[in-house]
Amino acid sequence: MASRARFAGKVVLVTGASSGIGRASALALGGEGARVVAAGRRRERLEQVVTEIRSAGGEAMVVMGDVRDEATCNKWVEQGVAKFGGLDGLVNAAGVIGNGGIAEATPAEWDRLMDSNLRSVYLMTRAASSELMKRKGRIVNLSSVAGSRPYAGLLAYCVSKAGVEMLTRCAALDLAPHGVRVNAVTPGVVVTELHTVANAVPDYAAFLERSKTTHPLGRVGQPEEVASLILFLLSDEASWITGVTYSIDGGRALLSAR
């Protein structure tokens, strides 16, 4: 069994740490000894995460701003290094969803999805790379089952997540000579605020019920389950894994798009 202190002394920056999979990852990392830099825009939510980590005996800090902004990404890295002395890991968990097919998705909506889901990963990875090289660090990006298959009415979301997967592979090649590993995870439907914040799914309860039938294991996922895979990929147990995208979707990718 893996030690509950797999990340003792390690510093990990988590974007989108205020909710969902980002929050679950930050809490799990804190619980296993990591010093967590919890990044996002909702201060009250981030403070709650940090308080929970500290209450359990861990170390954490809040950094605020918009991950779509280059200066913000650079500042987050600088603040984390100033506080904790370096950077060992990065979890790019921030992201949004939006509806609309090729005829309905406006250029503004396309830009919003690309900036939030893909540009942010590029900017954050670029900002963190030099510090991660110093410690042969690790990066895990959050993609989606929609990154490798089309869904009607989700054009920009699907394309943005497909971009995350290619970015993951390219960055893995670029950073491998420096000992930095880069991987991604592709969840199916997970119970988070992703769909409800933007009102992407008006009847969320019905959506979750229907999703049981589109996942062969017969249920949707929980953020903590995805966080467990993220932590594995960040850990020394995955020391020979890079440039790989891992499905964690209850078998969703095995079925035709529906």
Structure, described:
With 258 residues, the protein is of the alpha/beta class. The protein has one domain: NAD(P)-binding Rossmann-like Domain (Rossmann fold), CATH 3.40.50.720. The chain is 45% helix and 14% strand. The protein has a 7-stranded parallel beta sheet with strand order 3-2-1-4-5-6-7, with helices on both faces. Helix 1 links the parallel strand 1 (11-15) and strand 2. The longest helix has 29 residues, at 107-135. It is globular and about 50 Å long. It starts with 10 loop residues before the first strand and ends in a 10-residue tail after the last strand.
Describe the main β-sheet briefly.
7 strands, parallel
What is the CA-atom radius of gyration, in angstroms?
Answer: 17 Å
Termini Cα gap: 38 Å
In total, the number of strands is 7
What is the CATH domain class? Alpha Beta
Integer count of domains = 1
CATH fold name = Rossmann fold
Assign the CATH superfamily: NAD(P)-binding Rossmann-like Domain
